[in-house]
Write a structure and sequence with these properties.
Elements: H1 9-13, E1 30-39, H2 45-61, E2 67-73, E3 77-84, H3 96-102, H4 104-115, E4 122-129, E5 148-155, H5 161-178, E6 185-189, E7 197-204, H6 207-221, H7 225-233, E8 238-246, E9 252-253
Antiparallel strand pairs: 1-3, 1-4, 2-3, 2-8, 2-9, 4-6, 5-7, 5-8, 6-7
Helix pairs in contact: 2-4, 3-4, 5-7
């Protein structure tokens, strides 16, 4: 595996983001995503997951019309991702029908149990860019059978956004020209994210398969990559990486 400095291709390919929302769905121009992030105490992981599964039980029991995907990173953060149409969608509380069905007291007990599992939590928005993402034709999000995820956050100053985007466009062009088999999604930070960043997501069946795909891609792009990486690093502030997994057992899709 190549390091960040030699020449950084491995880092770009370290995928990021939270995108396993609608498997096999035709790719839209863009998709706004609502993210709820819980940084769970390491010693409370089992308790948190037990409460999450109880929430799933209640959602299914009462047939609540909601959909969300859960991603768990290796630093004990759980990301609940919900696709939304626009900012106005935030005015709707999807759990209000559950409060009515369960009763306010039982609902509050459930979320009191959640609150014991983390010191804080936060909400923010991301948008998936179809024009910047490199995915098989007609596919918007990573398939469920590839639960292993890698995430890279490329932070930039606001005045560098257009310049960073231009380099990202060049990188996609290279992947297309070389017919790379290592696909990725691009997400852009929006309201509440705290900083400006592009989030790169890739996926594989497991860590071993990802290393194999990464190695093949290193060889495929090696001649052109150093110049692109040098151009990108001149425009960004820093890069952060995460490894994560799709948690289908904690995710929810409404069905009649």
């Amino acid at each position: 595996m190549k390091t960040i400095m030699k020449p950084g291709l491995a880092l770009w390919m370290t995928l990021c983001s939270f995108g396993s929302l609608v498997y096999g769905q035709a790719a839209p121009t863009s998709q706004l995503l609502y993210i709820h992030e819980d940084p769970v105490y390491p010693g409370m992981v089992d308790a948190y997951e037990n409460v999450s599964k109880e929430l799933l039980t209640q959602l299914k029991k009462h047939k609540i019309e909601d959909n969300y995907t859960v991603i768990q990173s290796e630093d004990f953060k759980y990301f609940t991702i919900v696709p939304i149409e626009n900012m106005a969608s935030l005015d709707r509380d999807p759990l209000e029908p559950l409060v009515e069905k369960m009763g306010k007291e039982a609902f509050q007990e459930l979320f009191t149990a959640f609150n014991k599992c983390y010191p804080s939590h936060r909400d923010y928005l991301l948008v998936r860019s179809q024009s910047l993402s490199y995915m098989p034709e007609g596919v918007a999000f990573m398939p469920q059978e590839k639960p292993y995820r890698k995430y890279s956050y490329f932070y930039y100053a606001p005045h560098e956004q257009d310049a960073v985007r231009a380099v990202v466009e060049k990188i996609k062009k290279l992947y297309v020209e070389k017919s790379s088999k290592l696909y990725y999604n691009i997400y852009i930070s929006r309201f509440g994210a705290g900083e400006n960043y592009f989030l790169v997501e890739e996926a594989a069946k497991d860590a071993q398969e990802f290393v194999q795909l990464q190695s093949q891609n290193n060889t495929l792009l090696a001649a052109q990559w150093p110049a692109l990486w040098a151009e990108l690093t001149k425009k960004i502030i820093r890069v952060e990486e995460k490894t994560a997994h799709l948690r289908s057992d904690l995710s929810y899709t409404y069905s009649n």
